[in-house]
Amino acid sequence: PHRQGRPSPVPRVLAIAGSDSGGGAGLQADLKTFQELETYGTCVVTALTAQNSLGVQRVSAVPATLVADQLESVLADIGTDAAKTGMLPTADIVAAVASAIRRHGVDRLVVDPVRTATAGTALVNDEAFGALRDILLPLAALVTPNVPEACALLGVREDEVRTLDERESAARALLGLGPRAVLLKGGHAAGDECVDVLVGADGGTRFFAAPRLPTRHTHGTGCTLAAAAAACLARGHSAAEACGTAKAFVAAAIARAVPLGRGAGPLWHAA
Ligand code: PLP
Questions:
Q1: What does the radius of gyration of the chain's CA atoms come to, in whole angstroms?
Q2: Which family is annotated (predicted)?
């Protein structure tokens, strides 16, 4: 398989993400996940958040030129076998990321189309989300939206994407935006099971199910799933294998989530 840069003694994975001071989501979740899956994690910081179990108190974007410099530092020397993007707060940052990914030939890219925190705070502005759809999705090996993110990308209402059939159709429609595979997650849908739908350019559909656990300590699930999938792609696994492993990793992390703080506690990232 194609490897960016020189051959590496260990699978390398790059997180391009925002910092969560609370340690449950964002680049902290990504790096913990990479380590647990025995890959070498690097990280390009796109934003700082002051955040805890109660919510996001403050957000500040990193200048796009500094994001570009971090990308160059990592990719021109260490290289990477896969990358994942999380919080990309401005359109300039999205453009810097797309440019570096293209220039360095990173072909195993997982895009987690982050928009708002579960607590409701916007993490990404509308222009950035539009830029992600238009210039980053066509570069993605896998995109991992939840239902609200999928609806925002497609410009449809959430009540139009409720049943499993509707979710499969929405996932197929997202393939039209250019990614090679789409994992539409079922965490925001109803039901005792959380069923994620994977569709790929090969035409097949796969479903990944896990019981819905009765806990509110699910902070960081989206970041963790995309990070685990990227670690698997770095190992050379297919998108389907990567999604299966990532789903199991997140289910275990939710089952062991720790009720730290007074609000929604973080996952326990352990393989
Ligand atoms: N903080 C950062 C930096 C994130 O990237 C994300 C999600 O991607 C969140 C917070 C939100 O996490 P959650 O919605 O799981 O609370």
A1: 17
A2: Belongs to the ThiD family.
